[in-house]
Amino acid sequence: MQVTSDERRMTSSTAPKTSANLRAAVVRRAEKRCRRGAEEETQRRKKCGSFFVSSGSICVCVSVLTVIFCWLFVVTAVAQTPVTVTLDRTTLTTDDQLRVGVTIDGQINDLPTPPDFDGFNFLGRTQSSQTTIINGDMQSLITVIYTLRPVLTGTLTIGAFEMIVDGIPITTEPQTVAVTQGTQSVPSANIAAPSALTGAESVYAEAFVDVETPWLGEQVVYTFRFFRATDRLMNANYEPPEFVGFWHDDEEERTTYLSDVGGREYQVTEFRRYIFPTIAGELTIEPTLFIINDSIDVKTAAVTLQVNPLPEPAPDGFNGAIGTYTLEATLDKAVTNVDDPVALTVRLRGEGNFDITPDPEFSDLPGWRAIEQQSVTNTQFQNGVLVGQRQWERLLIPTEPGELTIPGIDYIYFDPATEQYETTTSSAYTVIVGGEAGEINTPALTLTNPAAPTLRPILAAPSLLEKATQALPDQSFFWLLWLLPLLIVLGDGAAWLAGRFIRPRTRRTQTQTTIIASQPRHPDRYVDGWLEKRYGMPFTGLTHHQRIAALRETGLSAATLTQIDTFYRTAEATRYAGTDTPNIDPDTLIQTIEAEETK
Amino acid sequence: MTSRLLHPSSFILFFLLFFVFFTGQAHAQATDTLTVANRLYEHGNYAESSRLYQELVTQGYSDPALFHNLGNAYMQQDEIGRAIVNYKRVLRIDPRNADSRANLAQAESSVVSQFPTAENQSITDLLLTTTDYATRTQISSFALGLWLLWGAVYLLYRRVWHTGFMRLSLLLLTTGVIISAAVFFTITWADRTQPEAIIVVPQADVYAEANNADRVLFALYDGTAVHITDHAADWTNITLAGSDLSGWVASNALEEVVVD
Fold this sequence. Notes:
The complex is a heterodimer. Chain A has eight helices and 28 strands. Chain A is of the alpha+beta class. Chain A has five domains: about 5-80; about 85-180, Jelly Rolls, CATH 2.60.120.570; about 205-305, Sandwich (Immunoglobulin-like), CATH 2.60.40; about 325-450, Immunoglobulin-like; about 515-599, no CATH class. By secondary structure, chain B is α+β, with helices and mostly antiparallel strands. Chain B has three domains: about 1-110, Alpha Horseshoe (Serine Threonine Protein Phosphatase 5, Tetratricopeptide repeat), CATH 1.25.40; about 125-195; about 195-255, Roll (SH3 type barrels). Helix content of chain B is about 60%, strand content about 15%. Chain B contains nine helices and seven strands; from the N terminus they run H-H-H-H-H-H-H-H-H-E-E-E-E-E-E-E. In chain B, strands 6-5-4-1-7 form a five-stranded antiparallel β-sheet. Chain B has a two-stranded antiparallel sheet with strand order 2-3. In chain B, strand 2 and strand 3 (about 215-220) form a beta hairpin. In chain B, helix 2 runs antiparallel to helix 3, helix 5 (about 80-95) packs antiparallel against helix 6 and helix 8 (about 135-160) runs antiparallel to helix 9 (about 165-195). The longest helix of chain B has about 35 residues, at about 10-40. Chains A and B meet through helix 3, strand 3, strand 4, strand 5 and helix 4 of A and helix 2, helix 3, helix 4, helix 6 and helix 8 of B.
């Protein structure tokens, strides 16, 4: 997430003003329009009864939308700030530790200024910084992790971090965590109460160092403690000294505990600063000032140190490293070909101030061409000592075949514990280099992580990260759909059963209805057709006399013949004269004929 | 003006806009966090990057890229088990993701506890191999689609086209429904009754009973795949795939593959 300087300026100053002006202008315009058309609008609303078609409603919608989108713009701009603050948890107990990570994507001169961490003991800080140069574009990513331990319960707030990133001041948002009581008690004092404190004082302050005659560049812990009686309510602030002649940063460890002195209970706040003298001779740390209720000042005593210069003569190659260090080097493979690079990882670790510790000297290697890739620094306080690690990665490209040597690297430092100059040397390696690419099969050797080199790379972040949704088979409608074909089969089966067992009972009743419904429009022709099938002779087109004569041959009685004749005459009259339908039903007539034949 | 603002339509519009706004903002911030985590990873800060990835997973985000990158971050820290869990999660969502499949194979080759694959695979194992090609949702959708099509063809055959072609179609569809439903129900049954989990600690002792004082049957190492069969307090009963070995391990020694 790269943000240009211009964009950041807009984020910090211009954008809110622009959005506010725009919002105000739109709202004013909307209100003016609303007032002007109020009566018309009322009439229109009465007529149509719709909310959305009225101009006043549109004004409201426009106003709301404007406010929302201005807010959206501002929040989006803020979200693109190059600083991210993360907490490893938001609920914890007083037994737990909280890790607050500040990730800075940009260039900074000084580390972030942390908040006071009220309610927490500051346990340590881990800092890592990476700088990568890709195609001449330098990218820097710094991560600082603060380890805290809560001493109070309830909702605690971690205030804003302040820093200057790429020349622009940035202030982060405060974070809150919920703290519950753990099983362990509040930390107790690890240093005895001062003898000057008798119990009669309401407040008291003192300061001291752990080493009064340090070597130049040696770590010194400056501790200042503030005692305040718990039976007095007061508000206290403090101003630390300038630490002239010392390297220091703004980080400090803070511990709060209760102490009983002379029968009176005091709440003790203990601060620790890690400082490194940069000048030999007598140095004085000015008093720390505590301000009580914005009016009363309480000072610690000034602390004087006698800083010893480093012993002379210093060995050749000594660049000012003071502490205790170990230099290591690892190689990713021991067999390669010309122009096929090997990766050399050099790691310096130990106790000391890694912010000012010089780098080892990487000399030119005959037969190799070196490309510096990146360096990573991690520092943290461990048990009151600043420890850390700095790692360099070098790509070494062999330029000639044969057995090439990568010599060990010497690193000279002054160890205050032994009061001597010491040397740590990394391992040397011999690499077999083939003449041309592919000549030698190059297996990976002695890797700290054998899986890493051939691991497929990470995937780019999608444009929108989606949350997990309920899978289709876990949704109820999915299972309901499975029933649908079953219902079809069951319905079809039910229809079949109905046709087989229920329909025959009603068939007789339905037959009459069906026959009537299927009667032709001309009953005389219908009866003609039946007679033709019955007696096997044509009846269509005959006159009344001819039809009666033909039927008389079949042996029908005179009454039946008369009935038939009447039916045909009536049917003819119905068709041509438009009179009522024949009063003799054709089926009844047919049944009469059938009955007579049966006799 | 006040009465207009209090109109129910205003409230509905207002809440809809806010819902869309906040949802979009949350997702955009998550994407930003993923981008930062990727940058940290590229700069070699694997611990911090994995912490940010894990934070997104905890917030409920489920994306192949997120799980793949988290798996890589764990691999770089030699946490093989957690890496395997996350690669498997990718393949649950996207079975054809070649990158995660390659990294998973590499991670699994680093696992100390290697168990030979059973020579005679059961029909269940055969059906479960379909998950290498399709997700459970895809398989279930296919099975349901075939089943609904079968219903439609059956209706047409009975009521409209009582032909030989329809009869043949019905027969083929019936076969398809049976096979796809068998695959789907087998996968679902396996997921529900014996969910897959991975050992995520360097060494996990497997006890005969859910008790530290009981005898240790055997030990499993980081990255070993197991199936969960039962739970009891802080203990989980596991069985090894392709064998009859089973026992109790501490629940915090393993992690389920399925994302809840």
